[in-house]
Amino acid sequence: MAINKKIEEALNEQINAEMYSAYLYLSMGSWFEEKSLTGFAHWFRCQYLEENMHAMKMYNYVNERGGRVVLKPIEGPETEWKTYLDVFQQVAEHEAHVTSLINNLVALSREANDFASESFLMWYVDEQVEEEATADELVSKLKLIGDNPNALLMMDTELGARGASPNVIPIHLNEPVA
Ligand code: FEO
Fold first, then answer.
1. Left if phi > 0, otherwise alpha if psi is -120 to 50, otherwise beta: which for 115?
2. In the chain, what are the domains?
3. Cβ 91 under 6 angstroms from ligand 1
4. In what helix (H) or strand (E) does residue 139 lie, and over which residues does it extend?
5. What is the pLDDT of residues 14-25, one digit of tens each?
6. Quick check: CB of 156 below 6 Å from ligand 1?
7. Model pTM score
8. Taking each helix axis from N to C terminus, what angle separates 115-145 and 149-160, rounded to the nearest 10 degrees?
């Protein structure tokens, strides 16, 4: 059964929101890169790829349901932040916003008795629990760190060790891909 038009449009909006998330995280990574905090920059490169994956998973789903993906312009993300904490507070707020978008999509699928879309979206519901928990944890750590540069560098090392998908482009191009 071909997908309901209203849900197709809403999924297209969500593909755009996921692409925007990717763009926002790449912008945050670039901000950290300039500060030579390469662990933070690496973490955001991983986030960028994860958001692209979220968009592509939905892109595939729309196609599989006989819908049509229509790409819309991606809004320009912010490029400057005052503090490290501000960056992660924005990540946490953004993820909470994405959760509300996903919840709205689930509600719309229920309204339309589109059980396939509801089931598909459950993956995103679970993913958002993890995304929000990670962002909140990083906000708490940065609050603890305060102005302590040693602790900040330790966090940089920790974030730099994040297991990368094979598609992450390394910070230094001559490094082997993880
Ligand atoms: Fe695609 Fe970070 O949620």
1. alpha
2. 5-160 (1.20.1260.10)
3. no
4. helix 115-145
5. 999 999 999 999
6. no
7. 0.92
8. 150
